[in-house]
Amino acid sequence: MDTLAGVVQTILSFDVTLWALLVLGTLLGLLIGVLPGLTFVMGVLLILPFTYGMDVDASLIVMVTVYVAGTYGGAITAILLRVPGEPNHVPLLWDGYTMSRRGQGAQALGWAATSALVGGLVSWLFLAFAAQPFAQIALSFSSVEYFVIVLLGLTSVLALSQGSVLKAFISLIGGMLLATVGVDSVYGELRFDFGSPVLQSGVDWIVVMIGVYSLGEVVTRFANRFGGDATTQQPERIRTVVPGPKALWERSGSLGRGVLIGSLMGTVPGAGATVGSFVAYGLERQFGKYRRDVGNGSPAGVIGPQAASTATVASAFIPMLVLGIPGSASAAVILGALLLHDVQPGPDIFRTQPELIHTILAALLVGVVLMFVAGLLTAKPMIRILKVPEPYVAVFIVLFSFIGAFALRNSMADVWLMVAFAGLGTLMNRFGFPISPLVLGAILGPLAERFFLTSMISYANDLTVFVTRPISGALMGVWVLVVALVGLQAFRRSRTAITSRHEGDAR
Amino acid sequence: MNRRRTGRRSTTLHAAAVTVAGAILAAACATPQTAGPDRGAEGGAPALPDRPITMIAAFGAGGGSDQVARAAAQVMERSLGVSVPVVNVPGATGNVGLNKLVTGRPDSMAVLIQDTLATVPLGTSQFQLDQIKAVCRLQNMPSALLVRKDTFGGTWDGLAAAAKERPNEVKVATVGRGGVDDLMLAALTESQTTAFRAVPFAEPSERYAALLSGSVDALYEQLGDVRQYLDSGDFVPVVLFAGEPIAAYQGVPSATDLGIPAEFVLPQFRGVVVHADTDPALIDQLDDACAEVVADPTFQGFQEQVFSTSDSYLPTAEFEQFLRDQEKVMGELLQRYNVAG
């Protein structure tokens, strides 16, 4: 209970300036989360130079709150505009956006905010009271287990597709191939560059994501002359956005799965919010109570991924503080900032610098709550965006797509690639190829390759390690189950010949 | 940890809060370039640059390259009078970042490290040495082969015995194929007949987790990057790859003790380079800025923490020569040990 007392004391000792920093950090995180192309890692980086002049407490508080809120902000645009502000919000497009098209945008936002709160709080408890055992779990994962997790993520996208499994598969492989362009991370070989310096730098999946989703969506809507249901189906009055206790209890399964997945994925270095979000969505789709509705505007498809995303934040600090290994890129930036302040996190820090731990815990706790409050306060005005005639909103989406693609690496080449992917996305929409597998393939493909090669080098090309190691063996079992389910789905569908396509039924 | 509380002076923090508000505006513009403090060309001598000079960190955020880039950029901003935004352009052992430098306009800098330089003689680089010009070397730091404290008796003899008993089965976590790590392991193989299996991990955190968890038996790393595990006693160095002895590790054999010729020992370095077409006058100014960086007390504290040696700083001409020499040595080593990517 020393920890709890320490945290409470730390929070009480915050002066006006620190509170101002907490609020500013939260707002900044939300803003960065909303902008596609500006990931929360870049958000934390943007803040870094301003923290040099502050003391350790102040700089920790700002960076931690930006990081926490950054995992939530993108949910708002994903749900309302089908623009994923962050890669981990891609799963929210499937159900969140569908909900908002149905006039349930307020509920979707409420669920997203609540799930982020629950994910943040529960993983905070893990960090505060179970950091040691969690860190030990993290250490029992090696590249073998990472590979199987990523494989699970890749396969689950096939399960998500409601149209042809073959088309989803083609899209997935396409995404994985796109990601092989450039220099590979294990052997340093240049691949598929066709002599062009633009391609030598590789195709960043954020460029793919912004192109096919944000700009591509605008092009598709433009081609339809913005016709359809966007403004017509909004209810006149939005009654409530926060789910009540009964609804919460009903959805506790989704919340629990999301939080656990997020806490685990945050703890193991090499995964993170995006992988956690995808895996959580896959679980809801395969094993959740509402699995039949997931993909069709079910809150479960919002809850799982968002709870997982925010749960990765506190848990990313577990290996960082216990072992000195940052659990995510953002945590790595914060670790770097600590080093510049002459603070060395590592195995001894819980004992030697409890005050620092209390500051981090306090910042996380307050950050999570502030993010929730800010999320609720902004939800209602945000819903009004849907009342704005779509062409005006589209202008801003286009603007942010271009800025986002450029901001990624300050490269015009990325902007042109993004435009090309917008074209590809439009064509894929037109010919009934689902887009999400493409994006997922581009995100997870390189991870899968790297973890597979590392495992193979480490175990002298012995393929059996994937089943003989206990954790990876168990995960492999789950994978076989998922593949069987997908096969069954494909078989049933080919008999009933449902032609509706996954992204298509949203409009 | 007493100094944490003393630093809480509300005036500086108010200033900090205002700066963060500025950061929000900067973020709203969404270009990291605008995120630096707005210094403009206030009061600078006419010879000083009048536009921001980007510093490319060719590795991921939070790593050693990133830290040195950010620490140096901060001092250089003061000295040059323009903002020096740091951009992370990671990928392919730093080649994506260096490629960005040489294909862009000559108005930015990049941090070059030993591992990236090693890809030039290896033939996998996306730049050549004549496409860049040296500015200064900021760090020169020892690398080491490390093991967990409770394994192999914490000594080279223990590790070497295991490697001889089970050739190619004792695993060493490295950065990537064909890099300096591989060359140094090959040099050990030649002088000590120890054969290791190098397992590449691109992310530092994965390398450290691999050694902590026992997925690998040893780790090739700069001492400074694993300071926390050295301080906690979890990792112990068994061989040092350093130009000069390190006070804290007198008893640990150095690579030269193990029969590797001194000129073949390649410690890690980090330095600043620019596009070959950069105005020589600007390079001079950048080098002056480097001199201020290494004189800065905060930066010196940082140097100490990462075991950076006393001869770390090399001005333009010497660093240029150093780069060429290193490229030559690495070329020879690659041939000698027949290491390929």
UniProtKB/TrEMBL annotation, chain A:
The chain crosses the membrane at residues 20-48, 60-81, 108-130, 137-159, 165-186, 259-283, 316-340, 360-379, 391-409, 438-459, 471-491. Pfam families: TctA. The keyword Transmembrane helix applies. InterPro entries: DUF112_TM. Keywords: Membrane, Transmembrane, Transmembrane helix. Residues 21-440 form the DUF112 domain. It comes from the Bacteria. This is Tripartite tricarboxylate transporter permease. It comes from Pseudonocardia zijingensis.
Automatic annotation (TrEMBL), chain B:
Residues 1-35 form the signal peptide. SUPFAM superfamilies: Periplasmic binding protein-like II. It comes from the Bacteria. Gene3D superfamilies: Bordetella uptake gene, domain 1, Periplasmic binding protein-like II. Pfam families: TctC. Keywords: Signal. Belongs to the UPF0065 (bug) family. This is Tripartite tricarboxylate transporter substrate binding protein.
